[in-house]
Amino acid sequence: MNTVELIIKKRNGKALTKDEINYLIHSYTKGRIPDYQFSALLMAILLKGMTKAETSYLTEAMLHSGKVIDLSYVKGPKIDKHSTGGVGDKTSLILASVVAAAGVNVPMISGRGLGHTGGTLDKLESIPGFRTNLSLKEYKSVLKKCGAVLIGQTKDIAPADKKIYSLRDVTGTVESIPLITGSIMSKKLAEGIDGLVLDVKTGSGAFMRKTKDAVELANSLISTAKAFNKKVIAFITDMNQPLGNYIGNWLEVYESVMVLRGKKQGDLFDLSMNLSGAMIYLGGKAGSIKEGIEIAKEQIDNGKAFEKFVQMVELQGGDTSVILNPEKYPASKFKSKLKSTTNGYVKEINTYQLGMAALELGAGRKTMSDKIDPKAGIIFNVKLGDKIKKGEVVAELHSQSKDKINIAKEMILNAITFSKQKTTKPKLIKKTIK
Amino acid sequence: MNTVELIIKKRNGKALTKDEINYLIHSYTKGRIPDYQFSALLMAILLKGMTKAETSYLTEAMLHSGKVIDLSYVKGPKIDKHSTGGVGDKTSLILASVVAAAGVNVPMISGRGLGHTGGTLDKLESIPGFRTNLSLKEYKSVLKKCGAVLIGQTKDIAPADKKIYSLRDVTGTVESIPLITGSIMSKKLAEGIDGLVLDVKTGSGAFMRKTKDAVELANSLISTAKAFNKKVIAFITDMNQPLGNYIGNWLEVYESVMVLRGKKQGDLFDLSMNLSGAMIYLGGKAGSIKEGIEIAKEQIDNGKAFEKFVQMVELQGGDTSVILNPEKYPASKFKSKLKSTTNGYVKEINTYQLGMAALELGAGRKTMSDKIDPKAGIIFNVKLGDKIKKGEVVAELHSQSKDKINIAKEMILNAITFSKQKTTKPKLIKKTIK
Q: In this complex, which of B5, B11, B46 lies closest to A46 when CB atoms are compared?
């Protein structure tokens, strides 16, 4: 096959065949197509799109660039969740334990944080000793023992995605529904799962600012999952404010532990129960999402979910003492309260900006080589629709640097828009797509 | 400036500013932007287009990536011609001499052949000793002495174009009007000309198959030339059949010499006179194109054009004896006549295919490193609308290889479509745009 002719075919808006997509992905992964040709192809895909069939072929080619984990030896259903990412989104930590406690295996391969969003791996690694770089053998062993495992992407899993993602990042070709679909689904399908629950976020802190785009991505992910005979449910959820109140790696583990220990209110709890319920339903342990949610809540009430979390932390080498006694965790050098300078109802929160403020404090990274301060972050007390009085504490900032706290305070104040009129709370789950 | 942000800006269909385009072109030329980013930008430009202003900025940035030749010391007007290329297109050889004989300087920097089209440099180099790689000093000296000079692109002229063109060629980004415009005009403007006549070809042997696309390109070239205060006229001309009858490097020099010596009929003569007339008009030596054409014809009749050609060949180191006595030129090892296998009127000629047949015989190159056989080629006797009898000679093939002749014969026969009904001759000049 001729690479230039295939670039021209896609550029002219024609659909590529399965063989052509296989050739392109495998040749690029093996270094036989240079970056400069592949980036032209990526731009053509971004601007001309791909059909459902092409998106499935792309996903399949990326999936088979590496290993597909065989979990057939693990009894029972295996269901994972994928979130498109947001600020304060720590549901993975909660639902892995809840769903495993309900008898559904959760084999989860996660990512790291970059830019305004945190990553599950970074959050878990704030627990002293916690290892996310398990071998495939250890991965299988932890899953078998505890029903949940949370690791990072290995070199064996969809290496095409790693190479393609790096190129997209520097060539203005990130925001393409088929390319995002291939990237997400090739990794998820490699886990050896039976089904997948998708949390596609939309709003000021999400990659998809507009609900329309989030729905388009959800539909693409669903059609691809179905092409691989996987059970799938997608939720379009609100990311116009942080999920929960804690932003930052250890702070998010702390908040997750609070939920697992029975703090049963707020958007974080509600969304975690919804996602867990859908996973339990897909795993065949409930007749509906609603019933799944009831079962999920029981796992919190009866303490099994928290036990499961402690077990998983232990099996992955983490220090369970900080989970059992979170107050033992070392504190940040500086903690500072930010007070409101105005009276009013919270009308808008620039959630992206809040994520960037947490990054500024040390909780995130601008480039993949940056180091993270696990203790740094923000406890953000404010929700959309809240009535705030001047002088009221809107946030507590944790950092090793006083200068950074001052910069972040400014960013947080600028991120909140107040209104004299009463404002409404957004709907947490905007849409459920099966 | 941030390269990725500029790629995204263009990808989103926004116009880039002059500063942004300067940054992109100069950084890429200097190797500070990698190929993989620039190719994504090229694809975005191809698919999203550029405004007239952007196209001028692009041309200016490419022009100033190298030297602009100062010809102010040469007295009189300096007018060049650019053709978008076709099969048998040898007008440059004729008009340079005709126009110089009429007192208008023709400083011409030309290209080599690639694929189905020949290049003026290769044609001239079929004359033993002819040097196309003159230094800028020699270029100026020949122009001053004789009023016409024909050389190849030097490293000093628009180096951005060389680098960008190589990348476009392997990334499916050749067919973009703004990119083609920047490539052509940056080189032509570097010559130090006052005006330019454009021969934009359309048809089965042209890069622009459709007249609509040729007109679009002509308009883009014209608006860019005007942005640089250059006089300009464009002709949209037919390339649904070879121009003249000779295809191949020496064969085309031979046919040009025949025209310069007074063979005053056929499409090659007509187009050469039209282009010459327009150049003489732009150079201020005639009051109209029509008058320019009359002056051009006089230069043939009075022998001055041929004298000029001989002088130019001599000044550029060529052996004038083969120009004065073309029969002295070494013959190809094999010459073979191709006869028609059918009766009928010539309805269509796949001119691209004819160019490829000439290439097969040794007259062209598939890649820039291929060697050319200057003697090889085709004398093609047939024109659209001609009535051909079975057994009539349609072509004479010249090559060093009998096998190649057999392959090329098959290609030529397949390239001609006959009809029982009378067919029409195409209009040579479809449109004149000022």
A: B11
